[in-house]
Write a structure and sequence with these properties.
The strands form nine sheets. The chain has a seven-stranded mixed beta sheet with strand order 22-34-33-32-23-30-31, sandwiched between helices. A hairpin with a 3-residue loop joins strand 6 and strand 7. It contains 32 helices and 36 strands. The protein is of the alpha+beta class and 926 residues long.
């Protein structure tokens, strides 16, 4: 009968240790369910506890039973989706960071030192219920439970969009949430919502995105308070529980908005055009019965204004109520002014000079119709801006084929557990991140890395969710599921980055904050000038110019200029395998003037191998065993090469203790008989007092061949020299040439020996090299470059690169890099190629150029349009700009900004052809 064995582990230092232990346990029982990290192991298996302990010890580590740690089994209520599960897990991890948690929407299995009541309280604080297995809540009878269940079902059916009360974020949680907003029409609305969210207690930061009509809020404020704040400001908000839901809801709202705008366009333009055409055939006679005919027409126009223009008037009323000024207020004032003037003329024509007795009933209709048409086109164009994110979301599988016993069972993706075996057939997308345990195939990773060629994957290789299996059948062991998969993290990073703003946006923000009040003041001044100084008919001229100024001004173009281009640029970068973390990095990448690169894993393939070895007169087998035991504890890329070589030599492994990794130098440990072991570079040997003079000629020869030399010493005596070669990446030289073509100074910093570093640099075409560096030395070099006036980028992939990545203006984490490196970087390259940096620079420069075009276009439009609308050209032309032409120009300005931004979707970075290439034309990256 299967048992859950819980053990405390010791001796594990990294993911490689965990992987080695898992492999040993899977060899013991391939069907076992294993949950393991560097400190804990839970194994569900038929094998005895002693067998499990012996298996862990055979892998080189220690395991002790932890049966004294309480284990609780609970039934959960109120969880509906992966978001609920994630929220509950976060609450439990806050309760006990060391707890072992196995959770889905219905059940919780947790091993923790905290009491069962503490666990239940943590679940309830997350907004859900937890009941011990086998128990019923004392206060709830079966009939009451059924009644509550029916009530919940009814309430859910009443409103699919309403978030359940128990899903509210508990106070004290700092998890960022995203809200889908409705009712936003211009940049003024964004400012109103931003102010409303900023004033909610517990909000640390709120980012409102005009382009996506969404808000991202971090802090401890409950969700209900955030929604109420938005609603009090006059807008709608709902929580986005999942990315799929958010994209679907956003698309639904855009389609709804598009349909409404098209309806309003026809409703206003058709009668407006009819009235305008009638003016060519009949000038209104405001006397007798015809005067009342035009009065009735005026009432009909008012009805259409309140129907087709309801959105403008509702938004204008919200702005006035919150003492704000927005575009809708300008439109509402302009349209209403034209209608009121026309009604006054129709009712009291004798009080108006004869030359000014003109009716403008068609003007408010044409204004509302033309602006609605422009907004409809803008909405349709804006819907294409998030295509890259939508494509990423579409890569997520909804089901997975999990092996249960002897059968393959299709289950929902949220029901896949870490450690499950998943069957993957040709033509299917990988549902989770996993390790291949059976079969071989070719995986198309172009949707994540941008590389068009499928790559071979076999037993032991890692595959990522969202990639495509093109050939054979594979069996995977799920290593990351749900929101932890590489694809989910990419999507989340892209969404966050698209909502961020580059520094260039600050100018537009400052202008937009005073734009509408300034326009209203200009309109009043224009009216006063025409009324006091203008020619007859003064009233008519005053009305036309003031209305035209109000209508032609467009803060929307300014509000859209930055976020729409940022959104598309970051999405385009993601589709090319470049993850830009925020708007500031997007802008800084294009400003780079120097790039610092690491050697191992950045310029080289990161797959070193031992090519040569020299041994002294020693017990070779014993020394080889000590070497293998020493390298078992290291996670340096060279350690894997040495271990692979030791395995080829059929070396036995002995247990070492007091293992220590010395950054930038090597590793030391104590052997089973007290031997002092050291493996590393010449600097380590120097600190250990190991003489190297006798082998200096061999060392120099190897280093001049671009090979790294590892020195192995026992008790202060040099025992062996190992030559390790990590080949230069095939595209490294071409990538460096592209960087030089972009006027970048390329510097290589490495902890390797100087002869080896210079050999690699010469092969790659890099002139400036600094070798033998510690991590802090790399950071110091970057700071020096910045003091010299360079905008510095840093490309690296290891944990030891994290300080340098953080010190640079922009850090680039290579695709195979550690999580620490990726978190420290401003951008991550999903493929292991420096070409990605050149692509990122091109995309950054194109995006910032696009933003500048949008901003200058919006500024120029208003700078020219407002004076023309005010009558600047009247002395030359003798005519004034019609309010209808102003409305058309206003609508066109927003459409122009969105259309210009959409050009970025088709941008492709240019690949510089190498001089020895057969082709004379430039290649273009896809």
């Amino acid at each position: 009968m299967p048992h859950d064995h819980r053990l405390a582990l010791s001796g594990l230092h990294c993911g490689s240790c965990v992987k080695r232990t898992r492999a040993a346990l899977e060899a013991l029982d391939p069907k076992a369910h294993i949950d393991i990290d560097v400190e804990h192991l839970v194994m569900h298996t038929d094998h005895s506890l002693d067998e499990v302990i012996r298996t862990v010890e055979s892998a080189g580590f220690q395991a002790t039973p932890t049966q004294d740690t309480p284990h609780h089994q609970l039934v959960l209520e109120g969880l509906h989706c992966g978001g609920c599960v994630k929220r509950t897990r976060t609450a439990l991890e806050a309760l006990d960071p060391q707890a072992q948690i196995d959770i889905d929407t219905d059940h919780l299995s947790i091993t923790t030192h905290r009491s069962r009541d503490d666990v239940i309280n943590a679940v309830e604080a997350a907004g859900y219920r937890a009941i011990p297995v086998g128990e019923k809540p004392a206060s709830v009878s079966e009939s009451e439970s059924e009644s509550e269940s029916e009530s919940e079902s009814e309430s859910e059916s009443e409103s699919d969009n309403a978030a359940p009360a128990e899903a509210d974020r508990p106070a004290g949680s700092n998890e960022a949430i995203e809200l889908q907003l409705s009712g936003i029409t211009c940049a003024g609305c964004v400012r109103t919502i931003q102010n409303a969210l900023d004033h909610v207690d517990g909000v640390n930061e709120a980012q409102v995105n005009f382009a996506t009509r969404s808000a991202r809020v971090s802090g401890s404020a409950p969700t209900s308070d955030l929604i109420k704040a938005v609603e009090r400001a006059g807008y709608g908000a709902e929580v986005i529980e999942s990315i799929e839901q958010g994209e679907a809801r956003r698309g639904e709202l855009e389609q709804q908005s598009y349909r409404h705008k098209i309806r309003d366009t026809w409703l206003a333009l058709v009668p407006g055009a009819a009235l305008m055409l009638s003016m060519f055939f009949h000038h209104p006679q405001l006397e007798g019965g015809e005067r009342w005919f035009w009065f009735v027409i005026g009432l009909g126009v008012l009805g259409i204004m309140l129907t087709a223009g309801r959105g403008f008037y509702d938004a204008a009323f919200k702005a006035v109520r919150h003492r704000m000024a927005n575009m809708d207020l300008l439109v509402a004032i302009g349209a209403t002014t034209a209608w009121l003037y026309s009604m006054f003329v129709a009712l009291l024509p004798d009080t108006v000079p004869e030359a000014a007795r003109s009716l403008y009933f068609e003007a408010p209709l044409m204004i509302i119709g033309l602006i609605s048409l422009g907004q409809a086109i803008e909405t349709r164009s804006r819907g294409r801006t998030s295509k890259a994110l939508s494509q990423l979301v579409s890569l997520r599988a909804s089901t997975a084929r999990v092996i249960r016993g002897d059968q393959d069972v299709d289950v929902a993706i949220d029901d896949v557990a870490q450690g499950d075996l998943v069957r993957l057939r040709p033509g299917e997308r990988v549902p989770v991140d996993g390790e291949v345990v059976e079969g071989s195939s070719h995986i198309d990773e172009s949707m994540l890395t941008g590389e068009p060629q499928a790559v071979a994957r076999t037993v032991g290789d890692q595959v990522s969710a969202g990639t495509l299996n093109t050939r054979g059948t594979l069996t995977l062991r799920a290593t990351r599921i749900g929101g932890d998969t590489s694809l989910s993290r990419i999507i989340e990073q892209v969404r966050q980055a698209q909502g961020s703003r580059p520094p260039i946006s600050r100018l537009a923000d400052r202008v937009a904050s005073i734009f509408v009040p300034a326009v209203m003041i200009i309109a009043v001044i224009t009216a006063l000038i025409w009324f006091n100084l203008g020619p007859e008919p003064r009233l008519t001229h005053m009305l036309v110019t003031a209305t035209s100024v109000l209508i032609i001004a467009c803060p929307c173009a300014l509000g859209l200029a930055t976020p729409i281009s940022t959104m598309i640029g970051i999405g385009r970068a993601a589709s090319a395998g470049i993850l830009i973390r925020h708007g500031e990095s997007l802008q800084r990448i294009g400003e780079l003037t120097a790039l610092v690169v690491d050697k191992t894993g950045t310029l080289t393939e990161g797959k070193p191998r031992v090519t040569d070895s020299i041994w002294q007169n020693e017990d070779h087998d014993r020394a080889l065993a000590l070497l293998a035991g020493l390298e078992r504890g290291s996670e340096h890329p060279l350690a894997s090469a040495v271990l692979a070589w030791c395995d080829e030599q059929q070396a036995e492994t002995v247990e070492v203790k007091d293992f220590e990794a010395i950054s930038g130098r090597g590793v030391t440990a104590t052997g089973p008989n007290g031997e002092q072991l050291a493996l590393g570079n010449a600097e380590l040997m120097k600190t250990q007092g190991v003489p190297l003079n006798e082998r200096q000629e061999t060392i120099s020869a190897w280093e001049n061949q671009a090979r790294s030399v590892l020195h192995f010493a026992i008790d202060g005596r040099l025992v062996a020299l190992l030559a390790v070669q990590d080949p230069l990446r095939g595209d490294a030289r071409a990538a460096i040439e592209r960087l030089h073509a972009r006027q970048l100074r390329v510097v290589m910093l490495t902890g390797d020996a100087e002869p080896t570093a210079r050999a690699i640099a010469h092969e790659a075409g890099i002139d400036e090299v600094h070798a033998g560096l510690l991590p802090e030395d790399k950071q110091a070099h970057i700071e020096r470059l910045r003091r010299e006036g360079y905008v510095v980028g840093m490309a690296g992939d290891g944990i030891n690169d994290a300080p340098a990545l953080a010190a640079a203006d922009v850090g680039f984490a290579m695709g195979a890099g550690s999580d620490v490196a990726i978190e420290s970087a401003g951008a991550a390259l999903m493929r292991d190629s420096l070409h990605g940096i050149s692509d990122a620079i091109d995309l950054s420069r194109a995006t910032i150029k696009n933003i500048k075009q949008n901003l200058w276009g919006a500024f120029a439009y208003n700078t020219l349009g407002i004076p023309i609308a005010a009558g600047l050209l009247y002395p030359l032309t003798g005519t004034l700009l019609s309010p209808m032409v102003s409305a058309l120009a206003m609508a066109a300005s927003s459409v122009t900004v969105v259309t210009n931004a959409n050009r970025l979707r088709h941008f492709t970075p240019e690949r510089i052809t190498r001089p020895d290439s057969d082709s004379s034309t430039a290649e273009v990256t896809s």
